[in-house]
Amino acid sequence: MLYATELMGAKTYDAQGNYVGKIREFFIEPADQPNRIAHFLFSRGNFQPLVARYDQVASVEPGSMRLNVNERLLEPYEPNEAWLAVQKDLLDQQIIDTSGRKVVRVNDVDFAEQRTNGSVELRVTQVDVGLPGAVRRLFQGIAPRKFIRKVQGQFPQRAIRWEFVNLVESDPLRRVKLRITHEKLEDLHPADLADIMEDLSAAERQAIIASLDEETAAAVLGELDARLTTQIVEKLDPEKAADILEEMAPDAAADLLADLPKETSEELLEEMPGQEAADVRELLEFDPSTAGGMMNTDFVFVGESSTRDEVLKWMREEDLNLDQLDTIVLLDRVAQFSGTVPVARLLLAASEQPLAELKLEPLLSLTPDASEKEVFEIFDKYNLRMLTIVNEEKQPIGAITVDDVVSKLLK
Amino acid sequence: MWNRETIEAKWAGWTERAEGALAFFRPYRRRLALFLAVVGPGLIVSNVDNDAGGIYTYAQSGAKYGNTVLWSLIPMTIVLYVSLEMCSRMGAVTGKGLSDLIREEFGFRVTFFLMFLVLVVNFGNVMAEFTGVFWASETFGISRFISVPLAGLLVWAIVVAGTAKWVERIFLTICLVYLCYVVSAFLAKPEWLIALLHLLPPQLMQYIPTVHPFVQVPPFSASYAVILAALVGTTIAPWQHFYLQAAVVEKRVGPRQYGATRNDVLIGSISCMVIVFFIIVCTAYTLYTAGIHDIDSAKTAAIALKPLAGKWASALFAVGLLNASLFAASILPLSTSYVICEALGFESGIDRKFGEAKIFYGLYTALIVTGAIFVLFLGRFANAILLWSQVLNGFLLPVVMIFVLILVNRKDLMGDKVNAKGFNWVAWISTVAVIVLTLVVAYSSIRELMGHPVS
Q1: What percent of chain B stands above pLDDT 90?
Q2: Which of A49, A364, A406, B126 is the most exposed place for a label (fewest CB within 10 A)?
């Protein structure tokens, strides 16, 4: 195994044994091969810096490198946005470790040699984030290599395989050129991804949200710290922001919009489709510290006379939000609230049983102006998982679920 | 000319203007809420400045030169504000701590050596804070073998057991205890108008006819320069920059909340200097007027106040000193472990559990425990510890300020939030001035440690 730190500054000679210069940088060309060092940059005093391709390397070892061509065949260096620089873009920077689900700082980059006919290629195998890498960085060029290897051996290895390394690049154009995708991040749980984002800088967070699909982005924003969420949404392109808000639960969207300046939230609401915008607008009217401010308008309601089978059939056909599908609200003939049925009771009921027979006793509901303290008390007293909120005409207008209560209590 | 349309048009203009004026006041509630949400880091960081070493220096300068050192407070407020504002701005714009940025822009080795210096210097400061605890407790006749370990345990427990929000609330409340010095100063019965007059440079005021009889002109001597330099040196410390920027990042201050954070820093800088003003006035009108010009510790100052301003003034002075030392003793180790872990890539933050951030909490605990033990057993060398910690601060400060200035002027990091031209001039001039002054302090402290007191 070779380390970027040990190779950095290695003296390089061409096929004829002429001194070319010292290695100053390694470039990966992700569009071509994601882990191969495609180019080496050499510098020698005031001479123009030169670049060697991967197939021009004859041998490489710590401190020295040999090329298989003459110096004259090397090209002069021109900066290229599509090249990923090991020193500049990786060393000392933060990366996301998708297997360990956290943000870490790179101490060193490890290479493996791969011999092909007549040349040696370097492949990036892992990034070192532990103390051995730190020791190398500290002593390289000051202490003899034997000493460094001995000291670094005293510390436990902490490295992340290259496949699990997710780079964060805040410039969108460069991200495309470097083929950086955040597909692996989309597989993480939104709560983990939110934790990761809290460790990054503002520009990096913005870059990640912008590259996620709307559904994942909505889920992550729902998990993030409120102030970060507003900062991100404010800087997003309004159209994208509206698309993300549309994917969020109306109560989460309303909480978010309430923290934004009036003009921004108005602009976003106008971008959203009519129904979703109307739901959110309704919620925005309520004081956040009341039942109305905590409730969600997205709940499932059916007529109390319908039977279990009718309801199940209807639920299969509808595109329901499964997160909210814990309890069903019942309406009587005049569309007034008449009770709630937990889905668990529905499962065990006989197929022709009307839902009115399954409802929970006593009949509990609150009006939107009830204080959050009343909400907490009623949840605690009756061990509720969901509470219906009704208007003055006793019609259900929203529901508070236990997760709303938990997040409110933690604030 | 005065037909209906023009009158209506005129009125329309007025109503618009009136609405504009109302609109200015309408969001005040929101603004206040915003300010309260981000307030804290600036206020805390500038108040911690008035730590054991600080109070000793202020008391000493007041005793030695009376009102004539007061004029330096206004320029010092500006320097403090300018240097801290840059860090809070960097935190808000980049979302990264100062040590993070140094690591990313200057590489591992530079960062490692800087962090090593930070560790050594801050350890010196931690010892100085425990020295403050020791002085304060001896004023009340309590042995240091009781007070110092108790103080160590207290500050350790506050941070390890508490959550970030809770800890910050305690710290903000502690800021109020500094008002002890205001009361102390009132008990000293100073001539307020004359003291306030000395906030303006007396070198200029002596030429204004009506006020000149009241103006004392400072003597321009080497020891006067040393006192001025010591004032600056104890007021602006390198660890503050790291602490403030990390706290701004931790509070999730973004560009929109930044205005409130800047006010926080401004209010912090001013309130810090207001407290300094009261400490100096208190000692100027007691010790200086009574002819006690040389005090060798903050304890001496507190004890000497007793016959001059009463036992309450003396007790309040000591309580203030205890509070300041405890406050700084809990923030310094915390900030040090934050900065080092952040830069070298270890898990950090008081929101993490002990097991998740072992190095962070380990470092924090070690700083407190060894700091307290050193002071317990080397109590006789308290003054030397204090002087050395100031010398070390002086050496590190220019380095940190130069890093800050380089980073804050980088367009690729800060975008259009780099220093404005005029601000940059002020910042560089302040930096050079601070470098010169801290070198003066370092020189004189070393001479004093070698046994050649400058006076």
Answers
A1: 10
A2: A406
Torsion sign, CA atoms A248, A249, A250, A253: negative
- What CA–CA distance (Å, rounded) separates B348 from B104? 18
Q: Which of residues 244-273 of B touch A (CB under 8 A)?
A: 252, 254-257
The Cα A378–Cα A367 span in angstroms is 13
Indicate the length of chain B as a whole number.
Answer: 455
Chain A residues with CB under 8 Å of B95 CB are: 200-205
CA torsion sign for A158, A163, A164, A169 is positive
Q: β-pairing, A57-61 with A64-67?
A: antiparallel
Q: Give the up-direction half-sphere exposure of residue B137: CA atoms within 13 A in the CB hemisphere.
A: 20
**Pairing relation of β-strands A94-97 and A159-161?**
unpaired
Cβ atoms of B44 and B330 within 8 Å: the answer is no
Asked whether the predicted pLDDT for residue B28 surpasses 70, the reply is no
Instruction: Give me the numbers of helices (H) and strands (E) for chain A, helices first please.
Output: 18, 21
Q: How far apart are CA B231 and CA B79, in angstroms?
A: 12
Among B68, B73, B130, B157, residue whose Cα is nearest residue B365: B157
Beta bridge partners of A21: A12
Q: How many CB atoms are closer than 10 A to CB A285?
A: 10
Is residue B406 scored above 90 in pLDDT? yes
Q: How far B105 CA lies from chain A's nearest CA (Å)? A: 8
What is the rounded distance in angstroms from the CA atom of residue B292 to the CA atom of residue A143? 56
A161 and A126 Cβ atoms separated by less than 8 Å: yes
* Cβ pair B53, B389 in contact under 8 A: yes
Residues B439, B455: Cα–Cα separation, whole Å: 17
pLDDT, mean over chain B: 79
Which residue, B135, B187, B136, is CA-closest to B310? B187
Tokens (6 digits) for A332: 């009587």
Report the percentage of chain B scoring pLDDT > 70.
Answer: 86
Greater confidence, A299 or B216?
A299
Q: Are residues A286 and A263 in contact, defined by beta-carbon separation less than 8 angstroms? A: no
Looking at the complex, report in whole angstroms how far the Cα of residue B110 sits from the nearest Cα belonging to chain A. 9
pLDDT at residue A297 greater than cutoff 60: yes
Phi, psi values for residue A248, rounded to 5° = -80, 160
Of the candidates B178, B173, B170, B176, the residue with the CA atom closest to the CA atom of residue B334: B170
User: Tell me, what's the ipTM?
Assistant: 0.72
pLDDT at B22: 46
**Minimum CA–CA partner of B37 in chain A:** A227
Tokens of A293: 């401010």
Closest CA to A249 of A298, A283, A204: A298
pLDDT, mean of residues B444-450: 74
CA-nearest of B410, B412, B417 to B255 is B417
- Residue A231, chain B, CB below 8 Å: the answer is yes
CB neighbours of residue A399 within 10 Å: 25
Searching chain B, which residue's CA lies closest to the CA of residue A262? B27
- The token pair at B396 is 């590190």
Tokens of B166: 């809770």
Q: How many beta carbons lie within 10 A of that of residue B17, not counting itself?
A: 10
Copy the structure tokens of residue B305: 């106040």
- Residue A170: pLDDT band by 50, 70, 90 thresholds? confident
Q: Is the pTM of this model over 0.80?
A: no
Closest CB to B108: pick one of A137, A204, A227: A137
Please indicate whether residue B266 or residue B28 has the higher confidence score (pLDDT): B266
Q: Could you give the C-alpha distances from A218 to A249, A250, A252, B239, in angstroms and in order?
A: 9, 11, 9, 39
What are A89-142's pLDDT values in tens digits?
A: 888 888 888 888 888 888 889 888 888 877 888 898 988 888 888 888 888 878
Contact, B110 vs B310, CB < 8 A? Answer: no
Nearest residue of B to residue A139 by CA position? Answer: B109
Summary mean pLDDT of chain A: 85
